Amino acid sequence: MRTRRIYLTLAAAVVAAWGFWHFAPAALPAHASGPVDGNVVSERAASVGFAEVIEKVQPAVVNISVAGHIGAGNDVPFDEFEDFLRRFFDRQSSRDPGAGPVFRGMGSGFMVDPEGYVVTNNHVVDNASEITVTLNDGTRLPAELVGTDEKTDLALLKVDAKKELPYARFGDSESARVGDWIIAIGNPFGLGGSATVGIISARGRDIQSGPYDDFFQIDAPINQGNSGGPLFDVSGRVIGVNTAIYSPNGGNIGIGFAIPSKLAESVIAELKSTGHVTRGWLGVTIQPVDEPIAKALGLEKAHGALVADVTPGSPAAKAGLSPGDVIVSVDGQEIENLKTVTRAIAERGPGADVAIEILRERERKTVHATLGDGSGEARESRSPAGRLGFSIAPVPSGSPHDGVLITGVEPTSPAAESGIRAGDIIVGVGNISVRSVDEARAEIEKARSRGQENVLLRILRGDGALFVAVPFA
Q1: Contact 328, 340 (CB under 8 A)
Q2: DSSP string, 288-340
Q3: Nearest alpha carbon to residue 471 among 407, 397, 396, 416
Q4: Rounded to an integer, what distance in angstroms lies between the CA atom of residue 303 and that of residue 16?
Q5: Is the Cα torsion angle 5, 132, 113, 123 positive or negative in sign?
Q6: Contact 37, 46 (CB under 8 A)
Q7: What CA–CA distance (Å, rounded) separates 314 from 319?
Q8: Got the DSSP string for 371-387?
Q9: Residue 429 and residue 435: Cα distance in Å, rounded?
Q10: Which residues pair with 267 in a beta bridge?
Q11: Going residue by residue through the chain (473 aa), what tens digit of pLDDT does each one get?
C-alpha cells in the first residue's frame, strides 16, 4: 500500500459584507451537550461571517484513527481511480516486528446523537481492527463499529463517553442550491478541528464510485484526513458527508464531493437500527440508452435503462424481463437513466411488488416483479461489457437483418480499440452465422476455448458489411 503524501493547507475565508451595512452578531453561550446548531445565528447573519457557526458546530466533529493488520484480503490497495478521484483519507502502512505489516490511518467524523453515535465514511474504517475517536476537547475513546454500507461509503460508530455529547443534526439537502454557502469541517490530524468554506458548485454528480452516486460538488478546500467530516449549511445543519476529491496532482485543486444528507440520513438510521442496509433486488444488468442505441431500438429519444442481461432465477427472470428490454418506469416513476432505476428498485425493499414498464420490440408492456433481498448482491449492475468489451441484445422485431445487436461498447476495451460501435449488428462469428444472443456467445466462447488470440466478427454497419478481429482481453 503506497504512502500518501500529506498536504497541510491553511485556508482562511474572507467574505465581503453584502450591501452597505455591517452585522455584528451577539456572543452566544457555549454548551457542553445538545444539538450544536441550537444557538447558531440566523442565516442572514451567517452570510456576513462564519465564525459563530463554526464555533457552535465544531464540538460535534471528531478525529478517527484506525489500525489493522495487512493480510490476505485485508490490504486495500489504492488504484488509479483512488489516486485521482476518491478518498482523501490518510492511510499509511508499516511493519510491526512482532505482528507483521500493519496499516494506520486517520479520518474525520461527526456525532449525530448525544449517546455517542458517530458518522464517517466506510473507507475510513474498512478492515480496521482498532478504531479510536478523539473528541474536539482531546478526549480519546475506543469506538465500536455499529455497521457499514459499502455502496454509499458510509459507516456508523459508537463511543461511550459516560456523558451526553454535543451532536450535529441533519438538514435538508434537497433544498440546497448551486451557489449556496457551505462549511466543510474536519479533524484530520487529531490536533483540533479545521474549517474551510465555499459554495455548492453542482448537484447530482456521478463519480462512478457506486450505484447510488448523487454527490454535491463543492469548492471548499478539503484535504487528506477529512474523509467522513460533515458539510454544514450556514444554519449549522449537516447537508452532506465529505467523501472524495478530484486530485490529479496529489493535492487539492478545489473540486470535492459530498454525500447529500437525504441519502446519508436514511442509511445511518438503518445502520443504527439493524447494523446493515437492506435493499430491493431485481436481478438485471443494465446500461445507458444513448442516441445510437435509441435509434437502433426505434426509440423516439434516449432515455430509460437497457437490460443487457438477466440473472437466472432472479425476480427479473421470473417476471419475464429479457435482454433488449428498455425499462422506462417503475411503479409509474419515469426512468431517465441508470441511477434512477437502481435507486427505485433499492428503495422499495425486499418483498415489494413493483410494476415495471418496458419497451420491447417497439411496444410498451408492463411486467410485475416481487423484489428479492439485495443485501448480498453487488447491485443492479451496469453491463461489464465482458472481456471483449461489448454487450449484445436481440435485434429488434421488424429489423430487415438477422443477427445480434451490439448495444454498448466499453471505452478503451478491445472492442472499442478494434472499431466496434454500438448499433453494429453481428451476423457471424468466424464463418458461422449467428441469429441469437445465445448463438453469438456460444461461438465466441468456442473461439476462446480453442486458444485463439482474436475472434473474427462479421458485422453489418449502415448499408455495408465488414469483418472485424477483436482480441481477447
Answers
A1: no
A2: E--HHHHHHTT-SSS-SEEEEEE-TTSHHHHHT--TT-EEEEETTEE--SHHH
A3: 416
A4: 44
A5: positive
A6: no
A7: 9
A8: -EE-TTS--SPBP--TT
A9: 11
A10: none
A11: 333 333 333 233 333 333 333 333 444 444 557 788 777 755 555 455 789 999 999 999 999 999 887 653 444 333 333 333 444 444 444 445 555 557 788 889 999 999 999 999 998 998 889 999 999 888 999 999 999 998 899 999 999 999 999 999 999 999 999 999 999 998 876 667 789 999 999 998 877 666 777 889 998 887 767 889 999 999 999 999 998 877 555 556 678 899 999 999 999 999 999 999 989 999 888 888 878 777 777 778 888 888 877 888 899 999 999 888 899 999 999 988 788 888 889 888 899 999 999 988 788 999 999 999 876 543 455 544 446 888 888 887 677 788 888 887 877 788 888 899 888 899 989 878 898 888 888 888 888 878 888 888 989 887 777 888 888 86
**Which set of grid coordinates corresponds to residue 470?**
477483436
Residue identified by cell 483512488 is 82
| Strand, coil or helix: 223 | coil
Distance CA 90, CA 64 (A): 11
450: left (phi over 0), alpha (psi -120 to 50) or beta: alpha
Residues serving a catalytic function are: 123, 153, 227
In the numeric block, the cell 437490460 is attached to: 307
- 3-state DSSP assignment of residue 90: strand
**List of residues 6+ apart from 404 with CB closer than 8 A:** 392, 393, 394, 395, 425, 426, 434, 435, 436, 437, 439, 440
Contact 122, 64 (CB under 8 A): no
Which helix (H) or strand (E) covers residue 355, if one does?
strand 353-360
Predicted model pTM: 0.66
Find out whether 160 and 226 touch, Cβ atoms under 8 Å.
no
Element (H, E) at 196: strand 194-205
Residues 136, 58 contacting (CB under 8 angstroms): yes
Query: By three-state DSSP, how is residue 197 classified?
Result: strand
Q: Pick from 261, 49, 253: which is nearest to 170 by CA? A: 261
Amino acid identity of residue 196, one-letter, is T
Q: How far apart are CA 183 and CA 34, in angstroms?
A: 20
Side-chain half-sphere exposure of 446, counting CA atoms within 13 A: 11
Buried b (16+ CB within 10 A) or exposed e, 156-171: bbbbeeeeebbbbbbb
Fill in the amino acid letter for 93: S
Whether residue 279 contacts residue 302, with contact meaning beta carbons closer than 8 Å, is answered with: no
